[in-house]
């Protein structure tokens, strides 16, 4: 697992001498030469025992668009598809990581969603994490890519694999009808939504889940942040406490994920990473999924939130809490 750890370390750390990017941890490399990279990867694959280090060094230090160019040059040079070559040369966690990097963020999310509903049993944890944490733009792109990759409508697959209010919430989010943020603060609407959330839940016997879904799936994030603050003037509990009292199971987890992401999406991911690494059998799949899916989006902010909330770096926590021992070969700042 040491080589897998190198990947995680390289995706979570900025590179020596370079200005730390504001949001992603993976940015396009300067002086990029896809021909040279393709040739180095081919040599690494042909090396007896496979030179995995070289493959890691290249693919974890290039943006997705640069990896696409490498793949194009590799096929021209080696007369075979790079993904196919990587599958043949690698195995286990390292193979999964490298193949994940060969997808765009939306393609990776679509693949993870497909895997979460494929076959017997559903990985609700992954389903909730992805669907409830992505914004309108991300969800629209995931749906488009999913149809392109699997020739199926994502909503139909979700509907066929989930049920009840949980399914209704996920499908409402996939409709991507969330309002865009506005410079105008509608205090009357904020008060109305806060009161509706209270009256649909804590105030009555039983929960009007439909009202909760409608408000949380359609209102803009800045609006909802103010709604949750206003909600406290109606309810003796805050929104998260109310959710825990009113609903259970996957629906509870989904609503909580939404609220946490509305309040601070990067903190949600930071806490999820921390939770995944708490137990002795760390959920390395969760750690890998978050790092791969967010490394070109907002992983730098997630790192910052992790350090602020948990008082140690994400780097150190991965090293101590998982078998992904990233300390063995990473020389970048911790």
UniProtKB/TrEMBL annotation:
UniProt cross-references to InterPro entries, sorted A to Z: Annexin, Annexin_repeat, Annexin_repeat_CS, Annexin_sf, ANX2
One GO location term (cellular component): basement membrane
GO molecular function terms attached to this record: calcium ion binding; calcium-dependent phospholipid binding; cytoskeletal protein binding; phosphatidylserine binding; phospholipase inhibitor activity
Major subcellular location class: secreted
Keyword match Methyltransferase: no
Keyword Secreted: yes
Subcellular compartments: Secreted, Extracellular space, Extracellular matrix, Basement membrane
Keyword set, alphabetical order: Annexin, Basement membrane, Calcium, Calcium/phospholipid-binding, Extracellular matrix, Phosphoprotein, Repeat, Secreted
Protein family per UniProt: Belongs to the annexin family.
Domain notes: A pair of annexin repeats may form one binding site for calcium and phospholipid.
Protein name: Annexin
């Amino acid at each position: 697992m040491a080589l897998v750890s190198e990947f995680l370390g390289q995706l979570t750390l900025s590179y020596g001498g370079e200005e730390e990017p504001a949001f992603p941890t993976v940015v396009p490399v300067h002086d990029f030469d896809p021909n040279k990279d393709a040739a180095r990867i081919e040599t690494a694959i042909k090396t007896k025992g496979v030179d995995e280090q070289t493959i890691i060094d290249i693919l974890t230090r290039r943006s997705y668009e640069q990896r696409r160019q490498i793949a194009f040059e590799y096929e021209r040079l080696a007369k075979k598809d790079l993904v196919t070559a990587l599958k043949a040369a690698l195995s286990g966690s390292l193979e999964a990581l490298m193949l994940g990097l060969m997808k765009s963020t939306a393609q990776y999310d679509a693949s993870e969603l497909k895997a979460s509903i494929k076959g017997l049993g559903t990985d609700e944890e992954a389903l909730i994490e992805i669907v409830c944490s992505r914004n309108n733009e991300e969800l629209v792109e995931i749906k488009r890519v999913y149809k392109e990759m699997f020739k199926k409508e994502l909503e139909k697959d979700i509907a066929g694999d989930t049920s009840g209010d949980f399914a209704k919430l996920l499908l409402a989010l996939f409709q991507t009808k969330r309002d865009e943020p506005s410079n105008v603060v509608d205090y009357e609407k904020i008060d109305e939504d806060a009161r509706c959330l209270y009256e649909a839940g804590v105030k009555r016997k039983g929960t009007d889940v439909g009202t909760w879904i409608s408000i949380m799936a359609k209102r803009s994030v800045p609006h909802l942040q103010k709604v949750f603050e206003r909600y406290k003037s109606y309810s003796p509990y805050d929104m998260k406490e109310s959710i825990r009292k009113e609903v259970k199971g996957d629906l509870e987890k989904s609503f909580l994920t939404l609220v946490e992401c509305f309040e601070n999406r990067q903190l949600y991911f930071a806490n999820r990473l921390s939770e995944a690494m708490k137990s002795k059998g760390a959920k390395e799949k969760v750690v890998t999924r978050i790092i791969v899916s967010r490394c070109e989006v907002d992983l730098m902010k997630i790192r910052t939130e992790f350090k602020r909330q948990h008082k140690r770096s994400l780097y150190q926590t991965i090293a101590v809490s998982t078998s992904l021992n990233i300390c063995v070969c990473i020389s970048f700042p911790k």
